[in-house]
Amino acid sequence: MSDKLIGVYGASGFGKEVMPLVRAQFTELNKEHFVFIDDGQANTDLNGFQVLSYTDFINDSKTDKRVTIAIANSQVREKLVARLNQDSVQHLEIQAANTVILDEVEMGEGSLLCPFTCITSNIKIGKFFHANIYSYVAHDCIIGDYVTFAPGVKCNGNIHIEDHAYIGTGAVIKQGAPDKPLVIGKGAVVGMGAVVTKSVPAGVTVVGNPARILEKK
Q: Where is the active site (predicted)?
C-alpha cells in the first residue's frame, strides 16, 4: 500500500485540467491517492476526487505528500509555496506527455506544462512557471519566477520575462535580438491577444495590436 498523497492545490476549472496530468505521472497509484486542496470547497467531491482543506491534507495519515499548484495568480502561488515549504511538502514538476523540450533548457522547481507546450533550446526558466495549453517558448529566452502563460502564448526568441509577469491568452511577443532582448518587466500583464513589439515596463498592463499601455481611468 503506497504512502503517497498527491494534491492538486486549487479546485477550479484549471485544477480539473491539471488532475489528469498529475495522475498520468503516477500511474501506479489508485484514485484514492489523489485529492484536490481547496479551503473554499472542502468536504466536497470534484470529478470523483475528494476536496480537502489544507489542514486536512496536512493531517492525513499518509506521510509522503506531494503537491502541484493549479492557480494562475502568481502572488497566491508564491504564498502557497511558502506554506507548503513550511510543512515540508514536496513540490511536483508536471509535464503533459506531449510536451516538447529541446536542448539546453534549465527549469526551476514546481513547473506546470500543459498539453501541447513547446520549450525549445537554450532557455532558462525560474520557479513555479505555468504554461497553459498550446504555449511555446522559443530559443534564448530567460523567464523569471512565478511567470504565468495563459493558453496559446507565443513567446519568440531572445525575450526576457521577469518575475510574476502574466501573459494572456493568445498573446504574441515579438522576437528580440541577442544583444537587445525584448523585456517584459516584473509583474507586468500582457492582455489577451496582444501583440507585443517592444519592451514592457514593470507593473503595467498592455493591450492591443501593437500592444500599448492601458491607462488607468
A: 139 (proton acceptor)
Stated length of the chain: 217
And the C-alpha cell for 90? Answer: 514536496
Distance CA 161, CA 34 (A): 33
For position 2, what pLDDT does the model report?
79
| Model pTM score | 0.94
Could you write out the three-class secondary structure of 32-58? HHEEEECHHHCCEEECCEEEECHHHHH
Domain ranges of the chain: 4-92, 95-206
Q: Can you give the pLDDT at residue 1?
A: 59
Homologous superfamily assigned to 95-206:
Hexapeptide repeat proteins (2.160.10.10)
| pLDDT score at 217 | 62
Q: Which residues are catalytic?
A: 139
The class of domain 4-92 in CATH terms is alpha beta
The most distant pair of C-alpha atoms in the chain lies apart, rounded to whole Å, by 59
d(CA 118, CA 110): 17
